[in-house]
Design the sequence.
């Protein structure tokens, strides 16, 4: 006698079997094929047989009735069973065997599951079909879709079943088959849901080969068939942006609204990001204005893109303003944004602003990585603050961050520029011991350091040794030697080296010729400088703004101010954009000649050309106004430059202090003197004496003695540490 069977062991619970029988009766009635009583023994036997066939089982199966549950027993002992369980409007499939229902039976059960709103079971049944080994995908897909459509006529009442089938094909990467199914269903008047179509679009667009197909599919069914929604448009806008078809993407954004689909934050952010990538700031600002007018809030992704664009175009102040705006809105910028801003400020020479941001990162728990550390270390090295750079380097290592070739090369270059060649070569050796390979930039920095000490021969020996090791020198390395020779006043040997470069390579570039021009300009040989410029142009080399700045500086140093003004006018007429250095050379000469009216006009022209004043501009203007005793204007400029993160040089502080002292403005003078000391800058002996006497007269003996120590250390101990920069 057969032991009782639990529900989980049964092949089909009664409800599934009864549904099948009832469905067969309904079909027979609709076809007028009922010939005998369905309740007679023969009728029940035929009904049982047809139900078993429909569900994919053989006729020799035995139908049992126990406790109100139908079961189907198979007498083949080794044959395992497959189950489908239906309960609480949910199918459960307990797979255990090789007994596989026919394709038609599977499709019928899929329809029944879909009709009962159990799309998860329907999805599983369809997906399991494709798990079979050695399946002919194209042929099987045709058969499956045909059977699913055929059985839909008798068993189907839920068209979402085709959505499920479509989704399974897309999930499995069978995109061609999914497209064929879409077209076949469309021919029957059935349209796949927009969400399923979006899934298809996103999978197509995820690969470089499928982007064009996604756009084509979208365009084909834009007018008929699928009612695309905002998500659909966003997928295609992103696809067009990836293909760098930004105008088409922008056109599609406008088309959305005409079609009654409102763009969302994603729509605008995608387009803004691409415009940022290509540097189209005006389009970015216009789109942000549109977003704001529609009440859409800019997200962190959009803000980050804008900040990166502003940094890329050198608009660092504006980029920081956007950063502040994001923080007010509660959006915390990530490591990439902070690092980009820090790197931008360092490269522009505004290291204090970069350091302020670096410190802010740590306060806000945004973790700096080795790229962030390298950027700020490079900034300190470029401004000669090697103690700060070294301290930060050791902090970086202590946090487990590994410096790379760029980090070491920045430090080596900084020490070389500071004339600390012992430290530079020590770092070079440490770098090699760490398994890092110094590159041509590293050796160029070392050669440059040696040349600046007048050790051009040693630099040449170093480079010859590097060449013997197989490292290929580039034009930058040769430019270092040319520059070293020019600094030593050996312009003839520099020209000889350039001739060798023309023969053996690498050929001299714009920097090589500009270096030689600079040497002639600084020695007042403007005619020879002009000759070098003509040679450079004859060889098809394009002068840079630095080339023209060298000429401008030469004119100004030689007292040829009118020629300098003509050069500036010629640059503007030819569309060659001058920079702050170009204007600074002229303004410095105006200040020397006490012509502050011309200086002010030049500053206005500079601003009108879109050129922002730099640190040197402010220092030139402040010293010029102090010389003319325009202390109110000088004080205003000092506050303005401090607000922008720039710092005064020692000579500018001294000019301001002397100016206020002459006007008996002792409070302002003392404030500036203390600020100067906090900045680590050294005054001259006269300034120290004035404030030492002032403190002594006020009875502040501690301050007096402290200043006396500073005077001895900075002004009397051998060489004065004060540099009038």
Sequence:
């Amino acid at each position: 006698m057969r032991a009782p069977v639990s529900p989980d062991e049964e092949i089909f619970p009664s409800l599934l079997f009864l549904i099948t029988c009832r469905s067969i009766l309904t079909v027979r009635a609709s076809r007028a094929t009922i010939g005998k009583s369905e309740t007679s023994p023969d009728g029940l036997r035929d009904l049982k047989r047809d139900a078993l066939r429909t569900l994919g089982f053989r006729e020799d199966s035995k139908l049992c009735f126990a406790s109100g549950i139908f079961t189907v027993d198979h007498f083949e002992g080794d044959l395992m069973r497959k189950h489908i369980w239906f309960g609480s409007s949910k199918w459960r499939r307990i797979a255990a065997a090789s007994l596989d229902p026919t394709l038609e039976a599977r499709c019928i059960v899929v329809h029944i599951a879909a009709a009962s709103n159990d799309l998860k079971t329907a999805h599983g049944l369809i997906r399991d079909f494709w798990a079979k080994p050695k399946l002919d995908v194209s042929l099987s897909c045709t058969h499956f879709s045909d059977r699913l459509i055929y059985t839909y006529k008798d068993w189907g009442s839920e068209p979402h079943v085709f959505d499920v089938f479509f989704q399974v094909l897309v999930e499995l990467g069978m995109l061609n088959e999914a497209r064929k199914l879409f077209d076949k269903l469309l021919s029957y008047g059935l349209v796949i849901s927009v969400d399923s179509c979006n899934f298809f679009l996103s999978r197509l667009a995820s690969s470089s080969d499928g982007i064009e197909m996604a756009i084509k599919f979208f365009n084909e069914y834009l007018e008929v068939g699928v009612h695309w929604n905002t998500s659909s448009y966003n997928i295609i806008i992103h696809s067009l942006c990836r293909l760098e078809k930004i105008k088409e993407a922008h056109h599609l954004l406008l088309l959305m609204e005409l079609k009654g689909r409102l763009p969302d934050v994603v729509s605008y952010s995608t387009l803004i990001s691409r415009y940022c990538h290509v540097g189209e700031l005006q389009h970015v600002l216009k789109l942000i204005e549109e977003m704001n007018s529609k009440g859409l809030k800019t997200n962190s992704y959009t803000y980050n893109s804008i900040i990166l664009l502003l940094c890329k175009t050198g608009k660092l102040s504006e980029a920081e303003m956007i950063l502040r705006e994001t923080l007010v809105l509660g959006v915390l910028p990530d490591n990439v944004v902070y690092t980009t801003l820090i790197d931008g400020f360092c490269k522009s020479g505004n290291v204090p602003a970069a350091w302020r941001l670096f410190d802010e990162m740590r306060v806000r728990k945004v973790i700096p990585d080795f790229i962030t550390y390298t950027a700020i270390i490079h900034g300190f090295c470029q401004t000669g603050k090697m103690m700060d750079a070294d301290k930060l380097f050791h902090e970086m290592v202590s946090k487990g961050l590994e410096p790379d070739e760029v980090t070491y090369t920045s430090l080596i270059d900084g020490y070389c520029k500071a004339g600390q060649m012992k430290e530079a070569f020590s770092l070079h050796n440490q770098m090699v011991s760490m398994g890092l390979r110094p590159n041509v930039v590293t050796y160029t920095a070392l050669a440059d350091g040696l040349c600046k000490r007048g050790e051009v021969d040693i630099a040449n020996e170093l480079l010859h040794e590097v060449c013997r090791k197989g490292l290929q020198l580039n034009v930058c390395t040769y430019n270092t030697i040319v520059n070293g020779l020019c600094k030593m006043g050996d312009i003839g040997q520099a020209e000889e080296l350039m001739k060798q470069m023309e023969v053996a390579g690498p050929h001299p570039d714009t920097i090589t010729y500009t270096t030689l021009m600079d040497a002639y300009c600084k020695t007042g040989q403007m005619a020879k400088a002009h000759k070098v410029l003509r040679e450079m142009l004859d060889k098809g080399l394009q002068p840079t703004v630095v080339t023209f700045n060298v000429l401008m500086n030469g004119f100004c140093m030689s007292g040829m101010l009118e020629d300098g003004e003509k050069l500036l006018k010629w640059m503007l007429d030819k569309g060659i954009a001058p920079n702050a250095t170009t204007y600074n050379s002229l303004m410095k000469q105006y200040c020397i000649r006490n012509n502050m009216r011309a200086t002010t006009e030049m500053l206005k022209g500079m601003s009108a050309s879109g050129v922002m004043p730099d640190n040197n501009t402010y220092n030139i203007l402040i010293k010029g106004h102090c010389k003319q005793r325009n202390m109110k204007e000088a004080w205003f400029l000092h506050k303005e430059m401090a607000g922008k993160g720039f710092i005064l040089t020692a000579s500018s502080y001294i000019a301001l202090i002397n100016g206020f002292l002459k006007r008996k403005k002792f409070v302002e003078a003392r404030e500036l003197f203390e600020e100067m000391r906090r900045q680590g800058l050294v005054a001259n002996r006269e300034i120290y004496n004035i404030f030492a006497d002032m403190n002594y007269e006020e009875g502040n003996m501690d301050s007096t003695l402290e200043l006396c120590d500073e005077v001895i250390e900075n002004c009397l101990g051998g060489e004065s540490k004060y540099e009038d920069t």
